[in-house]
Structures are given as C-alpha cells and as structure tokens.
Design brief:
- The chain is of the alpha+beta class.
- Among the domains are: about 5-95, no CATH class; about 100-190, Carboxypeptidase-like, regulatory domain (Immunoglobulin-like, Sandwich), CATH 2.60.40; about 465-610, Immunoglobulin-like, CATH 2.60.40.
- The chain is built from 9 helices and 35 strands.
- The strands form 8 sheets. The protein has a 15-stranded mixed β-sheet that branches. Strands 7, 8, 9, 11 and 12 form a 5-stranded antiparallel β-sheet that branches. It has a 4-stranded antiparallel β-sheet with strand order 27-26-29-32, with no helix packed on it.
- Helix 8 (about 615-630) runs antiparallel to helix 9 (about 635-660).
C-alpha cells in the first residue's frame, strides 16, 4: 500500500514517540507506481523453467507526466545480481486519465451518494486500491462518490457495480470511457425497503477511523470527513466512530461529546470510545456511547485505566452514557456437536480444520459452558447482575455464541438489550453498516442522536444484516385493552412490559420483510453451506428454506420457539399476527435467524418478575466462576479484591433468583 498499513500491534503511543519507524511524508510522492505481474492466459502464474522467458507486467501510476522508477527482477532470495545489474532505471511518461463525472440520484430523484466498484474486462479494480489515499480506502474494491463528484479512468470498457447499503438493489452497468478530458455517467438508485419512512432509523454503533486495516503512517487513521463519506455511501442514518487503543492519542482529538458538526439531516456521526487495547480488554471490549468525557478519572495514559470492566461501565453510565460490550461472541465459543452426540471444543474463533466431523452449535439456549477466554461479552455475566450494562452487541460474531449468553440472562430476569454492529474495519473491513441496529423514533420526529441512542438503551429496536426487517413489534392481551410496543412504555409505565392478571393468550403483531436472491447461485450456496461460526455470521441466505425463497419467522418465548411462519423473501412487507400462550412471566421476541432479531417485550403475569428457567440461571451462576478463573490473573493486584467481591455478589444474585425460578 501507499502508506504503512496498521499491524497486529498497532501503535498506541503518541506519534512523536515512534517517529523513526514511520513512513516519512516526503517519501510519499515517490510511491507513485504500482506493479503487478500479468499471469492470466496465455501466461501461467509460475515460470516454466526455460532458459529465457518473457513476462508481462501491469503498471499503474497515481501521478501524471514523466516519472522515473527502478525496476528489478529476481526469482527469490539469493538470486539477485551482486552488481545490481538486474535493476534498471526507466523513465515513464504517464498519460492523464479521463475525468468521469458521476450523476448519482436516489430513488426519488434527489442527489445522493453511492458505492461504486469499477472493473475492466480483466477484472482489475479502479482506481487501483494499492495507490489509494483517503477518502478512498485501499482495502476496499468500492469507492464512494456523491452526485457531481468524479473518478479518473483510462479510456476503455468497464463494468460498474452501484450500491448503497442493504436497503438498495445492487445494480451493474457498462461504462465506455472515451479519450478526452471529461465525460459524465448517470445512475439512479432503486430501493427495495425504506424503514426510515416508518420512523425506523439505521445505525452502526461500532466503526473505527484508525487501526486494523487502516493506514497508521504517516497519517494515523483517517479524518471525520472521510468516515462521514462512508456512512453516507452506505445509507447509515447514524454512525458511531469509536476511538480505541491504536492511534488513541491522535484520534481522540476528534471527540467532542456531541454530534459532529459534519453531520447532515438524517445522517449523523458522533465520536465516542471503544475500550479496546486498554487494561480491561481481556474481560471484554466495551462500547461507551454518548459520553461527555473521554478520559477515565485520574488517568494520564490508557494504561492507567481499570483492568476489569465493571468500573468502566459504571463510569460511562453515570455520565449519561449508553454502554455495553463489543463483538459479544468472542470468548463465548460453544463446543461442536460430534456425530456421536458428544460435545467437543475447537480452538480459535470459529471455523474448523479440513476433515473435521463436528457441527457448529445451532440451538438456543445452549447449556454447554464457554471458556470465557476472549474479548467479547465475557464479564457481562457479572456486570448485568450489577445493572451497569445497557446492551451487548451482535451481528459481527457467530450468532449462536452472542445470543446464547443473552438468552440465559434474559431467562434470569435481567433486561439488557441487544444492538447491531460491524466493528469496521477489524472484524469486517468490507464496509460500514454490515451489522446494523434499527431504532424507532416518534412519528414525524426529526432524527437526533440522543433520541436514537436512548432507543438503543431502551430496546426500541431490532438488529441484523439489513436484509430483513421486523417493524412495529407489539403485544396485546386478547381483548386488546392493553397493548405495548417494543421499547415503549405500557399501561404500567414500564418499558416494553405488558401486564396480565393471570396466564392466558397474548396477540403478537408486526410487519416483516426480507430479500433473497430469486434464484440460488454459487455465491448464495456458498454462504448457506458454511458453518455458523464462519463469516458472514449473520446473513439472510443462511435462513433460506431448502431451495425455496422462503425464510422462517419465529416467535421466541423464554428462548424457545413458540410459533413459526414461513415468509416469502421477495422484499414485500407483510403483516403477521400470532396468538401465543403465556403460562408464566416471560420475555417474547421475534427473529429470522441469523438475519434479524428484535429486542424483547416482557409479559408479567400476576405482577411476578421473569424467572423463566432454573437451568439458565444455574448456567449464569456457574459462568461467573468460570469467568473469574479465566480473568483473575489479568486483573491488577490492587483491584483484585474489589473485583472478586463484585463477582461473588453476582453469584449471590443468581443464587437468589435460582430459588425464585420456575423449573424447566
């Protein structure tokens, strides 16, 4: 790449501390040339062994005019000419490309932004990714352009793929670039769904402007303007850009404690924090959103922060923040199901070696015990009991791992919510918004960050891949005298809670849509046939029923499937209604797994809290001990006694609830 790409151990020190290791800005203009070997027919990727062979090289220059470069050839270490005679200086004259002005119109004719993947007939991507600088990212095929902006292309024939997030139809067009100075190409986008018109606004609460795939030298990540371009191009109504360990001291300058002034109507951006690369990271990375202060009290460097998550969550919550765990599934891996029915744990964060006979866990809830040895929602089993965690994140790790710990704590009567994220460009570098949360605002209410993020906190939302949607989930009693919508207060003023005097049926209603390719192809089959712990972890193709265009819509009561209806995933919105028996105080949710999942509505029977499963509560109690044994040695000695007391208190809370619970 043109700059220095982030590495496994990205810099967490200030720029000046490592200046001798960085790419110097004055060297960048000399990195104008990209060289690639042409190895397609009639040539072969490897040399044949003949005494003399000819090879074709492809050259791409990001600069125009006369520039010199030295080309050297060898076939591996030790084959270089000692007199440097296999290196020759060549003077190139790079011809200017043609400016192609892009007309980008939304479905309603208004100017907008979109993602463009431009390829020539040989499949080469333009502009050349290796020579890209922000706002175009070198690890992407796509570039983002707004109406009236341009891209420079050499004369020739191209295919152009145009998209704008999962709510739009992906289009492919042909483009002929003729010799000249400038020309124009017009594109009009097509939606298949538009939840925002019904008050459901999308967001991704976990994207990064530095670290992982980003460059970190000579610039440490990218700017807010660069990130906003990507948010707009993927039709994300809200993007939370989180500064974290890599490039922390450079990126934290963008924290304002408010919505960025670069934001636009219906497209908001805000800088906050992921506690990752900090002393508490081993116990679970944290998303701290809606902060007013980004430095933990009495700290000067990030190494001074606490070494476990509860005090950090408490601090974030006390300042009015909305706080929870990132990429929840890491460390909560479940053992495979072997052909003989036994369970066996694999190493790593998903996938299996060739020849492995096991099947990834696919049932919820699962009573096998994870190792709690990762950076997901590990300490959540403790902090949820102390009421300092608003949510756990989903969509960017295996769905069963994420949902399993959540289902167990819901069965124990806790009410943490779920939210959707991408962890761009770390877990997913493809684009922002691969994992999404959709939050409902009041009718005709303009989008503002506080209302939106409080909807995340309150569970007025559903999360998923954006390829299926569950809108306006409500539950009422049979007489429809009492009705409550997800994330909104019921007649008792309690959020998401319907009261029943005694056991009986409730009516569950919502609107739903989904979009599958009409015909299966190699790509869709590839996704469907992958293990559930292989990417993409959430995708509507995993839900397809056999060779149909149907997906199962499931009503979940206390973690169990209470009813199922098959939906034709043709993009059309359909109303669904179910009569569901409620025998005890319960939580109820709707899902198309693994593509979309609502937050719960609680149904309280006779004023009793949810204590839905002794097995789940016992699982949680045991999990506290497993988590402590996995984390204790990484908690600093001065903090360890306080942490142990908090863990013990959590275990006591589960023990008390176990005595109140309904037998399974």
């Amino acid at each position: 790449p043109l700059y220095l790409k982030g590495t496994v151990n990205q810099r967490q020190k200030p720029l000046t501390d490592e200046k001798d290791k960085l790419v110097k800005p004055e060297d960048v203009p000399h990195r104008f040339l990209d060289i690639a070997m042409f190895d397609k027919q009639p040539l072969k990727p490897q040399l044949s062994g003949l005494a003399l062979e000819y090879r074709i090289i492809q050259l791409y220059s990001r600069e125009i005019g006369r520039r010199e470069a030295k080309l050297g050839f060898n076939v591996g270490q030790g084959t270089q000419d000692l007199g440097f005679r296999n290196t020759v200086p060549i003077l190139f004259n790079a011809a200017p490309a043609v400016e192609v002005v892009l007309g980008v119109k939304d479905f309603d004719g208004e100017p907008t932004s979109a993602a463009f993947v431009i390829r020539d007939k040989r499949g080469n991507v333009y502009p050349n990714p290796a020579r890209r600088l922000s706002p175009d990212f070198f690890f992407h095929n796509q570039i983002y352009r707004a109406d009236g902006e341009s891209v420079n292309l050499s004369p020739g024939e191209y295919s152009v793929e145009v998209s704008r997030g999962p709510e739009y139809i992906v289009q492919t067009h042909s483009l002929t670039v003729k010799p000249g100075v400038s020309q124009k190409a017009d594109y009009k986008l097509t939606r298949w769904t538009h939840p925002a018109t019904r008050g459901w606004f999308s967001g991704d609460h976990h994207v990064h402007a530095a670290g992982c795939a980003h460059y970190d030298s000579p610039t440490e990540g990218v700017t807010p303007a660069d990130m906003l371009r990507h948010i707009l191009g993927e039709d994300l109504n809200v993007g939370c850009v989180l500064s974290w360990g890599p490039c922390w001291y450079s990126q934290k300058q963008y924290f304002e404690g408010k919505t960025s002034a670069l934001s636009r109507p219906n497209y908001l951006m805000r800088y906050d924090i992921e506690v990752s690369g900090f002393p508490s990271s081993h116990a679970g990375h944290l998303c701290l959103l809606r902060l007013t202060e980004d430095d933990y009290p009495n700290t000067k460097v990030l190494e001074d922060w606490p070494s476990w998550t509860l005090p950090v969550l408490k601090w974030g919550k006390e300042q009015g923040g909305v706080v929870g765990y990132s990429h929840s599934g890491w460390g909560l891996q479940l053992p495979d199901i072997m052909p003989n029915g036994e369970r066996e744990m694999l190493k790593g964060y998903g996938g299996a070696p060739d020849g492995w006979k096991g099947k990834a866990a696919d049932k919820l809830p699962d009573y096998a015990m994870p190792r709690f040895d990762g950076i997901g929602a590990n300490e959540y089993v403790v902090t949820v009991a102390h009421d300092v965690c608003h949510f756990i994140s989903a969509v960017d790790t295996p769905s069963i791992w994420e949902l399993n710990v959540w289902y167990h704590t819901l069965n124990a009567g806790f009410q943490a919510r779920i939210s959707g994220e991408t962890d761009f460009p770390c877990i997913y570098g493809d684009k922002v918004g691969l994992g999404r949360i959709y939050v409902k605002l009041n009718k005709n209410q303009p989008l503002d960050f506080d209302s939106w993020i409080l909807g995340v906190r309150d569970g007025r939302s559903y999360c998923g891949d954006g390829l299926s949607h569950i809108l306006d989930f409500k539950i009422s009693d049979q007489n429809k005298a009492n009705k409550v919508a997800v994330g909104e207060p019921g007649s008792n003023k309690k959020l998401s809670t319907l009261e029943l005097a005694k056991p009986g049926n409730v009516k569950v209603t919502f609107d739903v849509n989904a979009l599958l390719a009409e015909k299966m192809n190699d790509n869709t089959e590839s996704i469907r046939n992958r293990r559930l712990d292989a990417k993409p972890y959430w995708h509507i193709e995993r839900c397809r029923v056999q060779d149909t265009r149907m997906v199962p819509v499931e009503i979940i009561v206390n973690g169990q499937v209470a009813a199922t209806s098959l939906l034709t995933a043709d993009g059309k919105t359909q109303p669904l209604s179910f009569d569901i028996p409620i025998k005890q105080s319960s939580w109820v949710a709707v899902r198309i797994l693994p593509s979309v999942h609502t937050n719960p509505i609680w149904v309280e029977v006779g004023g009793q809290p949810v204590r839905a499963s002794k097995k789940s509560i016992d699982w949680c109690k045991q999990a506290v001990e497993v988590c402590w044994n996995a984390k204790k040695n990484q908690i600093r000695e001065p903090e360890r006694a306080t942490a142990k007391a908090a863990y013990d208190e959590a275990a006591k809370i589960y023990e008390a609830r176990l005595k109140e619970a309904v037998a399974d």
